[in-house]
Design a protein that fits this description.
The complex is a heterodimer of chains A (703) and B (164).
Chain A lengths: L7 H5 L3 H4 E2 L6 E5 L8 H13 L6 E5 L16 H28 L6 E4 L2 E4 L2 E6 H4 L33 H4 L14 E6 L8 E2 L4 H8 L4 E5 L2 E6 L2 H14 L2 E2 L11 H5 L4 E7 L9 E7 L11 E6 L4 E5 L4 H12 L6 E5 L11 H14 L4 E5 L2 H6 L3 E2 L2 E7 L10 E7 L15 H5 L33 E7 L7 E2 L6 H19 L3 H7 L4 H14 L11 E9 L6 E10 L3 E11 L6 H21 L3 E3 L2 E3 L16 E6 L15 H16 L10 H8 L1
Parallel strand pairs in A: 2-3, 7-17, 15-16, 18-22, 20-21, 25-28
Antiparallel strand pairs in A: 1-2, 4-5, 5-6, 7-10, 8-11, 9-10, 12-21, 13-19, 14-15, 14-17, 19-20, 23-24, 24-25, 26-27
Helix pairs in contact in A: 3-4, 7-8, 14-18, 17-18
Chain B lengths: L7 E6 L2 E6 L6 H6 L20 E4 L2 E4 L12 E3 L8 H12 L9 H14 L5 H8 L9 H16 L5
Parallel strand pairs in B: 1-5
Antiparallel strand pairs in B: 1-2, 3-4, 3-5
Helix pairs in contact in B: 2-3, 2-5, 3-4
The chains are: A alpha+beta (703), B alpha+beta (164).
Chain lengths: 703, 164
């Protein structure tokens, strides 16, 4: 029997044939609502399906992210795909296998226990029967709801799960036409859309003459309010005209962003929705340790620009997108265009790396709107580098204040965390808003609906990982949510966990220092969860951590720990930095407990990438604002970690194959930042509490 | 209908002579991906800052996103699609798959092209040499260490005569 309730995706989409089919001889259709974002999820899901069905994973045809053809599993987000969709596919495949075996056993007049499956063929007492899934498929009705009554394989029997299967999609991505950018269609029109530099900006008069001259070929100019699009058969001409349009456009009104929006002080002065999540219990001590930390705006910085294709034939709108959620996008488009959702089909195609709510949905709106205005033509809209870096929603700024009194043993006698944050969830459809920037630029666009914080049930937004996982006295947790923040911010890998774990883990080091204790020993003194202890101890052992780690000598190490959302994977890291004018991150040792790991190399790849990306955010990244708009239109204005700057990364997964899989895609973000922050503090002999730990801040700290 | 007369530009791509419309300053990348249908080279920034579009012109790495097509007249252009006929590119591609050196993969074809230049010049590069050769490329997923290992693996395989 399946332990516990059905995964949400399966409860919402209970029919077996939504997930699986044997329509083509020798092939198995497996449908998932989750999409490939570069994280390798489709390979992991194929492994799970092939394992439960006992077929070669090469026989699987994965259907992923197609409205009307596969389960609606919402967004591919929150490190939930393997736990959720993988869990659903496991249960579905186990049940389907059991039903086939029951039918086969009845036909052979034998017991089910006499049967086995080898690459889809049924054997009786190890001998071929001449029957397989496809020969029996006609006898089995899969248009029925899941019962959840079949027993899935036990981990000891796994032959494919738990092994490093190479990514199915990688070969085509090195040189093939694997990406949405490579698609074309009949009667293709390339499109570029001018973006508002800030919310509500009103576009002034724009002379079309210079645009047409720059194009050198005929182009089609469409303007509706602040939505200006350039279209044509020749992409280079459209791009040339768009460059002139961006240069000549004048904007007024709206919510121009003040330069000081990047400071924690500005954020704290904004009107906020305040919430006491937990009351805590102040200790009697008068002396408290207090510290305030912050992070700025972070750009997703996908290497490929957002892109979409759309076509309207007068009855059906077809949209091809790299959105994280084809069903929510369809719903938002239906509302924006006042179409029935059934009149829109949305299919996912892969794009460059996606780390959260980027421009994918917005560019899909661009293409869809233009397709409606130019029926019968395929419209291919692509963002520029500047659009990608400046118009995608940013990761939200946060300020975090921590406060604790220490008892006679140097351990916290009370604990308080207070968080100020911009929104972490403004995806299409969230908070009842359409949330597509193209729609906001159209004439008569309704005033924007203020977003709510991400619901607690989804792992919190501002307060994600605000609850420290340590054995502490009652923790006071308060959030101040700036819903009306003028800058469009939304989900970026980790949401509030990045700043909260950075703050909590730095603060733990500060408390250890105040108590005169080694920070690793101090953590262990506050941790009873054996799985949490194990990752901390393992990371420390990997790094050869000693209780007399050097301090203030230019090279130092620091630790960071966290369990993502306090319910996904456990992670601890030790970072080693070398300091002169810059921070040189030399090495990061990591220990991960993700329960059963479906694909160890794929999981390691995700964690390594998370460490390096987090290091980039921590050391380099923060968007500046000038003249009302973000100053990060090109990579030179928004540097990220380069080949010459990446640390060596060593990872060890704890062997927990008998435990349930735990999501790990975002697990490294917060603890890595904290490990670096703590290492820098030890190397410098002074603590920097505002991210990024830039050269300027280090120079200031050295003075 | 085109409003201007095409200006034919002739060069070779992966050993094949081509004649394309190079009027205006149409970028080489647009010609490769559009007219010639070679979609393996990627548009990343259009500003020579990320390297996703890197191709070889007379065996030198070039940012195809901003290089006008007319500038490669009579020259030899090599793209990732040549991997089927080029032992060094083939060895690199195989090694990238062996090392699972990538996540989204968008930056990889450009990186492989720069790595080919390195391996032709320096058959057994150390880590520092690989890093120096690839420092013009950006990867946002954090696959750098795997990519460095893949380039070194390709070098070792080529040195051992393992042609894939």
């Amino acid at each position: 029997m399946i332990a516990g309730p059905l995964p949400r995706g399966l409860a919402d989409n209970p029919r077996l044939d939504t997930w699986i089919g044997f329509e083509t001889p020798g092939r198995v259709r497996i449908a998932t609502g989750k999409v490939e974002l570069g994280q390798g999820v489709l390979t992991a899901i194929a492994q799970i399906a092939a394992e439960e069905l006992d077929v070669d994973h090469q026989r699987l045809d994965l259907v992923s992210g197609v409205t009307g053809d596969g389960p609606n599993e919402g967004y591919t987000a929150g490190s939930l795909s393997v736990e959720g969709s993988g869990g659903a596919v496991r249960i579905v495949c186990a049940e389907v296998r059991a039903r086939f075996l029951a039918v086969a056993a009845a036909r052979f007049g034998c017991g089910v226990e006499e049967l086995s499956v080898e690459d889809g063929a049924f054997r009786r007492d190890g001998q071929p029967t001449g029957f397989d899934y496809w020969r029996l498929a006609g006898d089995i009705d899969l248009a029925r709801d899941i019962t959840g009554g079949a027993r899935a394989k036990s981990p000891e029997a796994y032959r494919l799960v738990g092994h490093s299967v190479p990514r199915l999609d990688l070969p085509e991505k090195i040189g093939g036409g694997a990406f949405i950018h490579d698609l074309t269609g009949p009667d293709l029109l390339h499109a570029r859309v001018l973006r508002q530099p800030w919310r509500g900006a009103v576009l002034g008069p724009l002379d079309e003459g210079p645009l047409r001259r720059a194009a050198r070929r005929p182009i089609d100019i469409l303007r509706e309010g602040g939505f200006l699009a350039l279209m044509g058969e020749d992409e280079a001409s459209v791009e040339a005209a768009a460059a002139v349009a961006r240069d000549k456009a004048t904007w007024s009104g709206g919510e121009q962003v003040p330069d000081e929006v990047t400071t924690g002080g500005w954020l704290r002065r904004q009107p906020t929705t305040d919430r006491v999540i937990a009351e805590g219990g102040p200790a009697a001590q008068r002396e408290h340790v207090e510290a305030a930390y912050s992070r700025g705006f972070i750009s997703h910085g996908s290497i490929g620009p957002s892109c979409a294709l759309a076509r309207w034939d007068g009855r059906q709108l077809t949209v091809t997108t790299h959105s994280q959620g084809v069903y929510p996008l369809r719903q938002a488009l239906a509302r924006a265009f006042r179409l029935a959702p059934e009149a829109i089909s949305v299919q996912h195609r892969q794009s460059a790396g996606c780390y959260g709510h980027n421009g994918a949905d917005d560019v899909a709106f661009d293409a869809a709107l233009l397709a409606l205005r130019r029926p019968g033509q395929t419209v291919r809209a692509q963002w520029t580098r500047a659009d990608e870096l400046t118009a995608s929603p940013f990761g939200a700024p946060m300020a975090v204040e921590l406060r604790a009194a220490l008892n006679a043993d140097g351990l916290p006698a009370d604990w308080s965390i207070e968080i100020w944050s911009g929104p972490h969830g403004q995806r299409p459809g969230m908070s009842g808003a359409i949330n597509l920037i193209g729609a906001e630029a159209l004439p008569g666009a309704p005033p924007r609906t203020l977003p709510a914080d991400v619901p607690d049930a989804n792992g919190f937004g501002s307060a994600r990982n605000a609850l420290a996982l340590y054995d502490l006295p009652a923790q006071r947790i308060v959030t101040h949510f700036a819903a009306a923040h003028p800058v469009r911010t939304s989900s970026l890998r980790g949401l509030g966990a990045f700043a909260n774990i950075f703050a909590i883990e730095c603060f733990i080091d500060e408390l250890a220092e105040a108590a005169g204790r080694d920070p690793v020993a101090y953590r262990l003194a506050l941790l009873t969860d054996p799985r949490a202890r194990a990752v901390v101890e393992t990371a420390a052992a990997m790094a050869g951590w000693s209780s007399d780690e050097p301090r203030g000598e230019g090279i130092a190490r620091g630790m960071g720990f966290g369990r993502y959302k306090n319910k996904a994977a456990y992670f601890a890291a030790v970072a080693e930095v070398e300091l002169d004018e810059d921070v040189r991150l030399r090495k990061v040792w990591c220990a991960v407990d993700a329960g059963l790991v479906i694909n160890p190399d794929g999981a390691a790849n995700q964690v390594e990438g998370g460490v390096i990306q987090s290091a980039s955010w921590t050391l380099k990244e923060s968007v500046r604002f000038e003249d009302g708009r973000p100053v990060c239109a090109q990579w030179d204005d928004y540097p990220i970690l380069r080949f010459s700057e990446v640390p060596e990364v060593e990872i060890q997964f704890l062997d927990r194959r008998s435990e349930a899989p735990l999501g790990l895609g975002e697990v490294a973000q917060g603890p890595t930042a904290a490990a670096i922050g703590n290492a820098v503090a030890r190397a410098l002999g002074a603590r920097i509490r505002d991210l990024p730990l830039s050269r300027e801040r280090i120079m200031n700290a050295l003075l | 209908m085109s409003g201007i007369a095409p200006e034919l530009v002739r060069f070779t791509v992966n050993g094949r002579p081509v004649a394309v419309d190079g009027s205006g300053d149409v970028p080489l990348l647009a010609v490769l991906r559009g007219e010639l249908g070679l979609t393996g080279s990627r548009f990343g920034c259009g500003l020579e800052q990320c390297g996703a579009c890197t191709v070889l012109v007379d065996d030198e790495p070039v940012y195809a996103c901003s290089r006008p097509a007319w500038s490669v007249a009579d020259r030899s252009v090599t793209t990732i699609e040549h991997a089927a006929h080029d032992p060094v590119l083939a060895a690199l591609r195989a090694a990238f798959i062996t090392e699972q050196a990538g996540q989204c993969g968008y930056c990889l074809s450009g990186i492989v092209m720069s790595a080919r230049v390195l391996l032709v010049r320096e058959p057994c590069p150390d880590r520092a040499a690989v890093v120096a050769a690839l420092d013009r490329h950006l990867c946002r997923c954090g696959a750098h260490n795997r990519i460095i290992r893949a380039v070194q693996r390709a070098a070792a395989n080529l040195a051992a005569g393992e042609v894939t």
